[in-house]
Amino acid sequence: MNASLEIERPYARAEQVGPLVRRVLARNPSAFTFTGTQTYLVGPHGKGEIAVIDPGPDEPEHLSALVEAIGDSTVVAICCTHTHRDHSPAAAPLSALTGAPIVGCAPLSLRDDGPRADASFDDAYAPDRVLADGEAVTGTGWTLRAIATPGHTSNHLCFALEETGALFTGDHVMGWSTSVVSPPDGDMTAYMASLARLYEREQDRVYYPAHGPEVTKPRQLVRGMIGHRRQREKQILRQIESGCTRIADMVPRMYKGVDERLWPAAGRSVLAHLIDLEKRGITTRHDDTWALTHTVEA
């Protein structure tokens, strides 16, 4: 998790960031959202048909900026990658203002998704249409195809803009940090499979994440993310082998130099790794301690 990367913060105004793609940054920066949630407008700038991806928080300034950016365009879809509260709450008020349907991920709500209070689930999210993997939303001159990428959340979708090779990655792949995978809904097994799926997509030329800058070498980044997770896994196994068997004791040793405000979330990712290892028969759990089922190979 790297919060040192600095980029310009053009809040509440639309920027053209690529062919058929504009971006509006919400003023909700935090240790988890970096500079804030980035909402994307897909389609021609003018009087054409557009889609809005991840409308973001229900904040007056952000909604006003979106309405101004939409202008005379017709919004044919408001698409949500997942339902954490920094992504989907503005969908309903934006739908009321534009008449556009809410489409994309399935509803999902849990009472407890770990320590990330800023990322609790949006209980009010009510899509008009849930997109299955491979289904598309279309407008004049563009096609957005849903790519199921569970892991960060079980309902997470990415959206591929087929005409340009752009992929909107939500929180699955971000331009500034690794994603938090927080059980019970966050699933490391699914997350790694979703990363592998994206790595196999050679047609994606650029990623537009919900937080942080665009990714211009996407397969290289995804390969590095897979390697990073495998290194974390090995680090966890070494911790257990050395006698450090509780997550609360592992995190300070594993995340030295990381903002301590992120340690609770880091602990959730460690738990997700341990659950994945348990499924694979490598670790076992005894209350709040963990053990190896066999000796870790050097």
From TrEMBL:
The family database entries (InterPro entries) matched by this protein are listed as: LACTB2_WH, Metallo-B-lactamas, RibonucZ/Hydroxyglut_hydro, Sec-metab_biosynth-thioest, WH-like_DNA-bd_sf
State the protein's name: Glyoxylase, beta-lactamase superfamily II
Highest taxon of the lineage: Bacteria
Q: Which residues form the Metallo-beta-lactamase domain?
A: 36-211
Pfam families to which the protein is assigned, alphabetical: Lactamase_B, WHD_BLACT
Gene3D superfamilies given for it?
A: Ribonuclease Z/Hydroxyacylglutathione hydrolase-like, Winged helix-like DNA-binding domain superfamily/Winged helix DNA-binding domain
Coiled-coil positions: none
